[in-house]
Design goal:
Layout: H1 3-19, E1 21-23, E2 27-33, E3 36-41, E4 52-54, E5 66-70, H2 80-118, H3 121-144, H4 153-165, H5 167-170, H6 173-179, E6 182-185, H7 200-215, H8 223-241
Parallel strand pairs: 5-6
Antiparallel strand pairs: 1-4, 2-3, 2-5
Helix pairs in contact: 1-2, 2-3, 2-6, 3-4, 7-8
Length: 242
């Protein structure tokens, strides 16, 4: 296998690895569609170093994922209506960045590997150069909209530097600036974030399963165990009323 083919595979592999999330207990990822929340996932069923991997759809870098986390006993949480409003504003702020990141994905994850495979050096150089320029343009939007994205100046600069140094990572820039932000809620409020009504029953079941798994690592006399048990009780109420 030639170095060009290895580089082509490396570009795709780096993009996929960079888009993956590794979730701790209590963390979940909300996938989005057209500016609204679509699904909630606690990651894969197997764990790597105590974390559950989650790989988003590699074909939709323009729809970034949002991270939510349930609050443990005594931790400050936000109301679901407030979190849903902030998420909507965040998705509006990141929209332009997402489309620029998508153009980068086409250039560096599709065009560049094909150029390497067919030996078109000029096409590879052109696609990499255009990707770098687009990454810089997206970085400008990240810095300008950092407050709406919930980022500090150092955080926004760090995300931009990574995108400029690692061109396959620039295709995930919208995801990167979105996943840095997190919303802490009561676990029972996860289904109330504004998901499609058809998805709510499945999300409730997923949250209950995640709470059950988390309780296995806690002592029954601990405050955290009692807090998770209370969230399970709240989640069960809609089923009891039905």
């Amino acid at each position: 296998m030639t170095p060009e083919i290895l580089l082509a595979f490396a570009l795709v592999a780096i993009y996929l690895l960079d888009s993956a999330h590794f979730l701790m207990i209590g963390e979940a990822v909300a996938s989005t569609r057209r500016g609204s929340l679509a699904r909630l996932s606690f990651g894969s069923s197997f764990e790597l170093g105590g974390r559950r991997p989650y790989l988003p759809n590699p074909l939709t870098p323009f729809w970034p994922e949002l991270r939510v986390e349930w609050g443990v006993a005594g931790e400050t949480t936000v109301r679901p209506a407030q979190a849903a409003l902030e998420m909507t504003r965040h998705l509006r702020a990141v929209r332009t960045i997402g489309w620029i990141a998508t153009s980068n994905a086409v250039l560096i994850v599709l065009v560049a590997p094909v150029a390497l495979a067919i030996g078109a050096e000029w096409l590879f150089v052109a696609s990499a150069t255009m990707c770098f320029v687009c990454a810089g343009a997206a970085g400008v939007f990240v810095f300008i909209r950092r407050r709406d994205l919930g980022l500090t100046a150092p955080e926004s600069c760090a995300a931009v530097v990574v995108a400029l140094v690692c061109l396959p990572c620039s295709a995930n820039l919208a995801r990167a600036v979105s996943i840095r932000r997190r919303w802490i809620l009561a676990a029972a409020d996860f289904p109330r974030l504004g998901f499609d009504a058809a998805q709510v029953p499945a999300i409730q079941l997923d949250v209950r399963d995640a709470l059950d798994r988390a309780r296995r690592f806690l002592g029954e006399d601990s405050a955290e165990y009692r807090a998770l048990t209370e969230q399970l009780r709240v989640l069960a109420e809609p089923y009891e009323r039905n």
